[in-house]
Write a structure and sequence with these properties.
The chain has three helices and 17 strands. The chain has about 270 residues and is mainly β. The protein has one domain (about 45-270): Carbonic Anhydrase II. The strands form three sheets. Strands 4, 5, 6, 7, 8, 9, 11, 12, 13, 14, 15, 16 and 17 form a 13-stranded mixed beta sheet that branches. The chain is globular, with a radius of gyration of 17 Å.
Length: about 270
């Protein structure tokens, strides 16, 4: 029950008002706090029409662009990336994990049974994988170009810092690791039918492009409430999925991506491969 509550709190796609604060305690001793709680009711949102991204600022102030905004996603301009120290390289400690597949109403998402089973470290901080989900098409662009899709691995530290790994997805060879999840995607987004337990463990690291440098910057959640202070690590090398796998994703959500946001005075660093 506790992990379910934490999952709900952590869901980037959740439009629910959140007033409950719980913590996940596990055998590792790590306690991962929930995403900053919302204390007022946030209206519903979508990716189109009057509740679309242009009007998200009406339900969550941080979504509104302004001077000093540090919102995501952004266009990554490759020629303007600044060199970063290797200390910023994200070390990934993901392994075979039991997930459930969830249809959040805004995205297709996979949530680990154990919220401290998988982690990444960067700059001396450990962040635990809370969920990964898909956007179609990509949210980040490279020199203005979209990829077919984008995967986000949302990781959180014990003191509440968020680091997201962004993986651009292009059409090509199928990703066999995706089949287990795709074959069991709930078509309903209404609880409790929107969650399916997966039987075969998935190693999330198989979705990460090996040997790829990354672009790193300070940004935000890409869904309301658009909370800032999120560390983004977007791999510059895409992975591939097949056209039928993309069609499977698109059958659930065909355009669940936020437009790119102004960079303002932020720096984007090129981080070497791990
Ligand atoms: Zn996302």
């Amino acid at each position: 029950m506790i992990s379910r509550l934490v999952r709900d709190l952590l869901s980037l796609g959740s439009a629910m008002a959140i007033v409950v604060v719980v913590a996940a305690c596990t055998s590792t001793g790590a306690v991962v706090p929930p995403t900053p709680s919302q204390t007022s009711t946030m209206g519903t949102w979508s990716y189109e029409g009057s509740a679309g991204p242009d009007n998200w600022g009406e339900i969550a102030a941080a979504c509104r662009d302004g001077e000093g905004s540090r919102e995501s996603p952004i266009d990554i301009q490759l020629a303007k990336l600044l060199p970063a120290t290797s200390a910023k390289t994200v070390m990934v400690n993901y392994g075979p994990t039991v997930f459930s597949a969830e249809n959040t109403g805004h995205a297709v998402e996979a949530v680990p049974e154990n919220l401290t089973a998988d982690s990444v470290t960067a700059d001396g901080t450990t962040y635990y994988l809370q969920q990964f989900h898909f956007h179609v098409s990509s949210e980040h662009t490279l020199d203005g170009s979209y990829s077919a899709a984008e995967l986000h691995f949302v990781n959180k530290s014990v003191d509440g810092k968020v680091l997201v790994l962004g993986v651009l997805v292009q059409l090509g060879d199928a990703s066999s690791a995706l089949d287990e999840m795709l074959s069991k995607l709930p078509s309903s987004s209404a609880s409790p039918d929107n969650v399916t337990a997966l039987t075969k463990p998935i190693d999330p690291s198989v979705f990460l492009p090996s040997g790829s440098p990354s672009a790193q910057y300070e940004g935000s959640l890409t869904t309301p409430p658009c909370t800032e202070g999120v560390r983004w690590n977007v791999y510059l090398t895409p992975i591939t999925i097949s056209s039928s796998q993309l069609a499977e994703l698109t059958s659930r959500y065909s355009a669940n991506h936020r437009p790119t946001q102004p960079l303002h005075d932020r720096l984007v660093e090129r981080v070497p491969a791990a």
